[in-house]
Automatic annotation (TrEMBL):
Protein's pathway: Isoprenoid biosynthesis; geranyl diphosphate biosynthesis; geranyl diphosphate from dimethylallyl diphosphate and isopentenyl diphosphate: step 1/1; Isoprenoid biosynthesis; farnesyl diphosphate biosynthesis; farnesyl diphosphate from geranyl diphosphate and isopentenyl diphosphate: step 1/1; Isoprenoid biosynthesis; geranylgeranyl diphosphate biosynthesis; geranylgeranyl diphosphate from farnesyl diphosphate and isopentenyl diphosphate: step 1/1
Family note: Belongs to the FPP/GGPP synthase family.
Domain of life: Eukaryota
Cofactor(s) this protein requires: Mg(2+)
PANTHER family named in the record: FARNESYL DIPHOSPHATE SYNTHASE, OS07G0580900 PROTEIN
Protein keywords: Carotenoid biosynthesis, Isoprene biosynthesis, Magnesium, Metal-binding, Transferase
InterPro entries the record matches: Isoprenoid_synthase_dom_sf, Polyprenyl_synt, Polyprenyl_synt_CS, Prenyl_diphosphate_synthase
Name the UniProt record assigns to this protein: Geranylgeranyl diphosphate synthase
Length: 370
C-alpha cells in the first residue's frame, strides 16, 4: 500500500493545533497533527504494551467480543470478560438511576433507548480512565452513567425526522417510531438534564472542586463548542461539493470525539489524576474519538443494516461528506490505523497493567465490525 501524502490537510481546525479545553493545562497550539502524512503500511512500532493483545473485536447482542491475540505466549488481558463485567455494572446502574415512575410515558421512553443495549464504550472509557489514575470504579460510576445518558439523548435526537430521519437504532425501531416525535424530543431533553443532576447527587467520596470541574468539562463537550457545533456544521455541509478534510475533521472532532474525550477526562478528574495525566489522557481520547468516527464512516459503506444494527449507507443517501468519500476506503483505513497507533503512544509511562483496558478499547474501536 502506497504512502499517503495529502500535504496541507492540516488547517486551522486540526485537533492538536487548538488549545486544550482545560484552563489549567494548555496544549501547545504549534503541535502539528497530520496523521495522513508519511503514513505507510509498515507494521506499527512497539508501544511498550507487548503483553496486551491486539483486539479484533465484534460485539454481539450480548455485549461480547471476539479476541485475537498477537502474542499468545504472553499473559493476555481478557477484554471480553472485562467488557462484560463493566457493561453489566453500567447497565445495572442505569436501570437503577432511571426507574419507572410518574409520568410513566416519559420514563418508558427514556428507558427504552437508554437500556436498549449498545457497546457502552463511553462509560467504560470513563471507568477505565478513573482506575488508570488510581481511582475507584464506584466514584466514577455516576459520571460514566451521565455520559451514556447524554450519548443516548444525542442518538434519540439524531434519529428524528428533522435530523437524520432514521427508523432503526441498535437493531430496534427508533424512539420516535415507538413513542412519537414529541415524546422522543422530551425523552432526550430529560436524559440530558438528569445526567448533570446524577453526577452532582450521586458522586460520593470526590471533592466538590473535582465534581464542578467534571461538570464543566461535560457541559462544554456537548454544547455550542462541542457536540452541537459538530452537528450544526454537519447539517450545513450536506450536499456541498467543496468540503475539505479540515472541515470534515472539525465535524467529527466535535460531533463524535468531544463526548468520548469528556468520558475519559471525567474519569481521570474524578479518579484524582494530576493535570499532566488528565491532559495526556485528553489527547489519547481525541485520537480515539476521531478514530471512532473514521471507522464509523468506513462501516457505513462496507456493512449491511443487519450487521450494523442501524441503517447502513445513510451518509451516502444524505450526500454527507465522509472520509471514504474524500480519500477512499483504503486511505481511510490507513488513517484509522495511524490514529490507533498514535493513541497508544500516549499511554506510555502509565502502569501497563492499569492501562491495558484503554489499550484494548483503542484496539476495539479500530477493529470493530459494527
Amino acid at each position: 500500500m502506497a504512502s499517503v501524502n495529502l500535504g496541507s490537510w492540516v488547517q486551522s481546525y486540526s485537533i492538536f493545533n487548538q488549545a486544550s479545553r482545560s484552563k489549567s493545562f494548555l496544549l501547545p497550539r504549534s503541535l502539528p497533527f497530520n496523521p495522513l502524512i508519511n503514513l505507510s503500511s509498515s507494521t506499527s512500532k512497539a508501544h511498550g504494551f507487548a503483553s496486551v493483545p491486539s483486539v479484533s473485536a465484534v460485539f454481539t447482542e450480548g455485549d461480547t467480543v471476539k479476541e485475537e491475540e498477537q502474542h499468545p505466549q504472553k499473559p493476555s488481558f481478557d477484554f471480553k470478560s472485562y467488557m462484560i463485567q463493566k457493561a453489566t455494572t453500567i447497565n445495572q446502574a442505569l436501570d437503577s438511576a432511571v426507574p419507572l415512575r410518574d409520568p410513566v410515558k416519559i420514563y418508558e421512553a427514556m428507558r427504552y433507548s437508554l437500556l436498549a443495549g449498545g457497546k457502552r464504550v463511553r462509560p467504560v472509557l470513563c471507568l477505565a480512565a478513573c482506575e488508570l489514575v488510581g481511582g475507584q470504579e464506584s466514584k466514577a460510576l455516576p459520571a460514566a452513567c451521565a455520559v451514556e445518558m447524554i450519548h443516548t439523548m444525542s442518538l434519540i435526537h439524531d434519529d428524528l425526522p428533522c435530523m437524520d430521519n432514521d427508523d432503526l437504532r441498535r437493531g430496534k425501531p427508533t424512539n420516535h417510531k415507538v413513542f412519537g416525535e414529541d415524546i422522543a424530543v422530551l425523552a432526550g431533553d430529560a436524559l440530558l438534564a438528569f445526567a448533570f443532576e446524577h453526577v452532582v447527587v450521586s458522586t460520593v467520596g470526590v471533592s466538590h472542586g473535582r465534581i464542578v470541574r467534571a461538570i464543566g468539562e461535560l457541559a462544554k463537550s456537548i454544547g455550542a463548542e462541542g457536540l452541537v457545533a459538530g452537528q450544526v456544521v454537519d447539517i450545513s455541509s450536506e450536499g456541498l461539493t467543496d468540503v475539505g478534510l479540515d472541515h470534515l475533521e472539525f465535524i467529527h472532532v466535535h460531533k463524535t470525539a468531544a463526548l468520548l474525550e469528556a468520558a475519559v477526562v471525567l474519569g481521570a478528574i474524578i479518579g484524582g489524576g494530576c493535570d499532566e495525566d488528565v491532559e495526556r489522557l485528553r489527547k489519547f481520547a481525541r485520537y480515539i474519538g476521531l478514530l471512532f468516527q473514521v471507522v464509523d464512516d468506513i462501516l457505513d459503506v462496507t456493512k449491511s443494516s443487519k450487521e450494523l444494527g442501524k441503517t447502513a449507507g445513510k451518509d451516502l443517501v444524505a450526500d454527507k461528506v465522509t472520509y471514504p468519500k474524500l480519500i477512499g476506503i483504503e486511505k481511510s483505513r490507513e488513517f484509522a490505523e495511524k490514529l490507533r497507533s498514535d493513541s497508544l503512544e500516549l499511554l506510555q509511562g502509565f502502569d501497563p497493567e492499569k492501562a491495558a483496558p484503554l489499550v484494548a478499547l483503542a484496539n476495539y474501536i479500530a477493529y470493530r465490525q459494527n
